[in-house]
Please model this.
Amino acid sequence: KKKKTALPFLVAFAVAVAAVSSPHCLPDTMSASASKKEKPHHHELAVGASTATVSLYGATVLSWKHKGEEILFVSEKAVLDGTKAIRGGIPVVFPQFGPWALGPQHGFARTSTWSVASTANSDTACTTTFVLQDNAETRALWPHNFVLTYTVVLHAEGVLSTQLQVDNTGDKPFDFTALLHTYFRVPHIKNVTVSGLRGLTYLDKVHDGKAVQEESDVISITENVDRVYMATGANEHVISNVGASRERTKADHSTATTKTDVTVTKTNLPDTVVWNPWIEKAKAMADLGDDEYINFVCVEPGSVAHAVSLGPGAQWQGGQRLTLSARL
Model:
């Protein structure tokens, strides 16, 4: 009898290792929980020890993992069938932040189906660009011609960058507000702090939009918080104790902390929204679990305090860079 050789196994193993370690943007996949009438596609990115998942519905980044640690929060009750804005991840807000007389709250970008325009890979990063162009549905709400270009860059060293570009392709100017509604996953909200806000003026939406000056070096979330920090300039924000690699249980995470912080670096997004609905408002949200307010904080770079005016043929860009760091 011929001796069995391990060569087929070794070849298969080598191929598997190469597939895992090489930077790549995978083909779009169907959502397992999508409805029968239209199943939103998911686009996967991977490089080094990092992965990301983006839904073409809203170009919403659903997941960002580094070394197995999930950094973004998506509600267990989030609707993922393309019938409602996704509760969690990084929804793209455009052309209106907040309530909108012409259409849905936070605009239509997060509830529109985007397309993949391009992908690019290197040894250190994986880049995918998504595009949304005006169509009959958007013009019925907002009669303007535009192209939105959203670029997601996953870096191997624990960095995620997202940039939104707005092009006015029509013959008349328009005004808009825009924001990246980032939900950060945390083991417990009471152990989270946000820095880089001291001295800034914010509009307190919980108290009828009252203007308040921030006096704290770091802020903690101990109640319903909905603040628009304005004219932040070059301020970076550091969010402590983000991520959670283990399944959440009340016993394990009641006082849990992580050793991971994230630094939010903004480009041409002058405002920052800090939000957590707390107990009563969480209970009123159908797509958020009653106690899930414990497990996220939203720190949202945007241009929302004052509308951006964009003339015919003009272009605007704004983005964020999220950098992970480990505390000893």
About this structure: The first strand starts at residue 24 and ends at 30. The longest helix spans residues 7-21.
